[in-house]
Amino acid sequence: MSMAKGARMQGVQIIEGVPATGVVVKRGRVAAVTTDQGDIECEFVVNCAGMWARQLGERSGVSIPLQAAEHYYLITDTIPGLDTGLPVFEDPSSYGYYRPEGDGLMIGLFESVCAPWHVDRIPETFSFGEIPPDWERMAPYLERAMDRVPVSHDVGVRKFFCGPESFTPDLQPIVGESPEVANYFVAAGLNSIGILTGGGLGRVLAHWIVSGQPDVDVTGFTIDRLQPGQSTPDYRTARTVESLGMVYASHFPNKSMLTARGVGLSPIHAGLVEHQAFFREVSGWEGADWFTPAGIEPRDATLSWGREHWFDYWAEEHRAVREGVGLMDMSFMSKFLVQGRDAGAVLDRVSANRVDGASGVITYTQWLNVAGLIEADLTVTKLDDETFMVVASDNARQHALGWLRRHIGDSHAFVTDVTAAYAQINVQGPLSRQLLQSLTTVDLSNDAFPFRTARMIDLGFARVLCVRITYLGELGYELYPSTEQAMHVYRRLLDAGEPLGVRHVGLKALASLRMEKAYRDYGHDIDNTDCVLEAGLGFAVALDKDQGFIGRDTVAAKKAAGPLRRRLVQVLLLDASPLMFHGEVVYRNGRAVGYVRAASYGHTLGGAVGLAMIEADEPVTPGYLAEGAWEVDVAGTRYPATASLSPMYDPANERIRS
Q1: Where in the chain is the domain with CATH 3.30.1360.120?
Q2: Considering only CA atoms, which of 567, 598, 571 is closest in space to residue 583?
Q3: Is 60 left (phi over 0), alpha (psi -120 to 50) or beta?
């Protein structure tokens, strides 16, 4: 009530008892909200309709993948001597949370296997209602939770309540501007912690709407991380059964959701299965995480924060790329064709780098907003004067597509999502050229096919786009066969690569190889709060482009302001034993100056390696790094480390250009 009063004092009009039945969209933007008493014209709308948000979004073509599920709590009768000032306390192993309720105790439950509620449609007349509790299903969970507070067995039950709460596919909120409709914002799917997070999310959205971009990292919970297929009834039913229980599950670094799997399959998935891949979910796709040697069945392990049984397999895959040749399936990467007379001009305007140069060249770039902060991290390949291919990470598919479409305007340019039309098979390592040259008549020598070249080549019975680029820090190529030819290309690569010792390489090795080279990954070690210069990506910015680019003036001003005091640096532990994941605090001369955003294990460098954002009282320069005594806190122990602004592996880029 106090917030409502404060809002009214600022001129806000709150209309109660009037249902919002839809949102009017004109030319791809919000125009009005429809009610049973007429339309309300507006420039922005925020869909915070809770478990009804998905249904409301559907009416405007906005996908909001959330689902209501039964959520339970029990209130005991009076417990003599209960301290009513006790804080809320939780016991994840008992699936319970506890707090005083009057003179009794509330015992709330987040059971490991839940029951979705009204998958078809949430009744529009249901509000603050109750669901008949399923005593039989919940009895084992309730008994275990009550065992944690034995006195609860000795008193009666005042109330056993069941009501619906909405949950999302990855147990993160759904917040931000929808990719389908401009100025259509969402704040829903708070996974039963709306009271804890609602105020903060409201503040994030207010800043976002007023200033045009959020001022905190939203990459983990923005709406466009999700895929439209996650809204189907079958998907929501299967995934919600698991997601509610994740509230109290330990979020181990290698944990992957188990339900609603096997949906997004690479065109070469069957081949990866034959070669004993262990898969994890990658934005709805099945991604090969690591491979077991012949005769050893891939199996999940007991999750932990230490070295798991596949650590040595991972190390061997890593070394195969550094010393020989590895084959990696990256078909889940987001792929778009941008075509039209103005395609090059549009892409050059949204890209910080110069992308509309010669045909047959791939360019690494970022898309920035007007504040000079990163919106996307990707490559643009110019195929001809009116055709470009954009490749972004799996989690950027909806965001990159929406961002580009909104900046085309009246230009003669069209963007098509071709993610599923092409596989992506990466051939990487010192022997990659030798392998590919044995399969094609196209000259792949360094002079004829230099770094950043993109060209169609023959490979067996297929014609394939071949791009000489790497994300692993070695000589390498990315192949983009059409879906129907992908398995043929894959088989040819394996057959020709056998004498060279070609090895399948999974996502664990991708992470360790790219981290040794300090290659960035949007949504992990760089995000929407980072200036492209602070992220260490100034080399990919063309400030001298005649037509400029979105965010150019801000970036130029940042550069002119002098040395940066906030920078992303690479850190390497000097002790080979500990592992890093993310969130570890970084110390310089005993003072906390930042934290690790993402990390892996550097099998070549000989220790855990990560990228950390450092904020200092003085410019973060090579001298600042060299003069400091660096440590990283891992699970309460500080380990000596070294820090660098340049990659610790092949800083001169000699290997990738060899």
Answers
A1: 425-499
A2: 598
A3: alpha
| CATH 3.90.180.10 for the 563-658 domain, yes or no | no
CATH superfamily of 20-66+170-226: FAD/NAD(P)-binding domain (3.50.50.60)
- In whole numbers, what is the pLDDT of the chain averaged over residues? 96
CA dist 50 and 24 (Å) reads 20
d(CA 176, CA 204): 9
Q: Is the dihedral of CA 307, 308, 312, 318 positive or negative?
A: negative
pLDDT, one tens digit per residue, over 207-259 is 999 999 999 999 999 999 999 999 999 999 999 999 999 999 888 999 999 99
CATH of domain 425-499: 3.30.1360.120
pLDDT band at 136 (very low <50, low <70, confident <90, very high): very high
Rounded distance, CA 526 to CA 376, Å?
Answer: 10
Q: Which residue from 413, 411, 424 is spatially nearest to 385, judged by alpha carbons?
A: 413
**DSSP sequence for 482-501:** BGGGHHHHHHHHHHHHGGGT
- pTM confidence score: 0.95
Given a cut of 90, whether residue 388 has pLDDT beyond it is yes
d(CA 511, CA 519): 9
pLDDT the model gives residue 5: 81
